[in-house]
Structures are given as structure tokens and as C-alpha cells.
Design brief:
By secondary structure, the chain is of the alpha+beta class. It has a single domain, classed as 2-Layer Sandwich (GMP Synthetase, Chain A, domain 3), CATH 3.30.300.180. It is built from 5 helices and 4 strands. The chain has helices at about 10-20, 25-35, 35-40, 40-45, 65-85; strands at about 50-55, 55-60, 95-100, 100-105. Strands 1-2-3-4 form a 4-stranded mixed sheet. The longest helix is centred in the C-terminal third of the chain and has 21 residues, at about 65-85. The chain is elongated, with a radius of gyration of 17 Å. The termini are far apart. Residues about 100-105 have low confidence and may be disordered.
Length: about 110
């Protein structure tokens, strides 16, 4: 008779697989991207996307200047949520750019 093995939940398996496949510096970006809708709100999340994390700064891309302004108005709230939920990432600033033209929001 074969010994009984403890089965893992699919979420645990996916997490382990992602951790093995994605370099650790990109894993932080993945974690924020996965929870972005809850952090920014559904409306903003449809138009503003986390692109990278560099030197304690979350880099966001938006598809329109109007959404850039919306992020600026909610920047403090978004940053507080990130710092609370992902404190280990030590994100201190948010930088936003529109399409491919970078604009600094700090």
C-alpha cells in the first residue's frame, strides 16, 4: 500500500510555481499587480497599470491624462494601502506616466 500524501491546494501550487519561475525582483511587481484592483479600485485599475518597482517607487502607466489626474488625486490613499498591505516592499513613492511619455507625480 502506498503512503498517504497530503495534497496541496491549487493556490499553493501556483504560488510555488510562480516563485520558482519569476525572479525575486519581479515577484514584488507580480504581487502588487495581482491585487491592483483592490488597491486602486476597479475604475482606476481598468486604465492605470503597475509597470515596475524601482528604488522604493511604484511605477504606474495610464492610458489617458484624465486617469493620470485621478491617480494624483488618490495618490496618498493608494500609497497608504500599498504600505499597509505590502509593507515589506517599502514603497515610498508613486510615479505615473501616460503611454510612453514619462511624467513625474512626486
Amino acid at each position: 500500500m502506498l503512503p498517504k500524501k497530503k495534497f496541496k491546494h491549487s493556490g499553493e501550487l501556483i504560488k510555488e510555481l510562480v516563485e520558482k519561475m519569476i525572479p525575486s525582483e519581479k515577484l514584488d511587481h507580480y504581487r502588487i499587480s495581482a491585487g491592483w484592483g483592490k488597491i486602486a479600485g476597479t475604475e482606476i485599475a481598468l486604465h492605470v497599470f503597475p509597470r515596475d518597482i524601482e528604488r522604493q517607487t511604484l511605477i504606474l502607466e495610464t492610458d489617458h491624462p484624465g486617469w493620470y489626474q485621478k491617480v494624483l488625486m488618490r495618490k496618498k490613499s493608494i500609497l497608504e494601502k500599498i504600505q499597509k498591505q505590502y509593507s515589506e516592499l517599502e514603497i515610498r513613492k508613486i510615479k505615473v506616466f501616460i503611454g510612453r511619455g514619462e511624467t513625474d507625480s512626486t
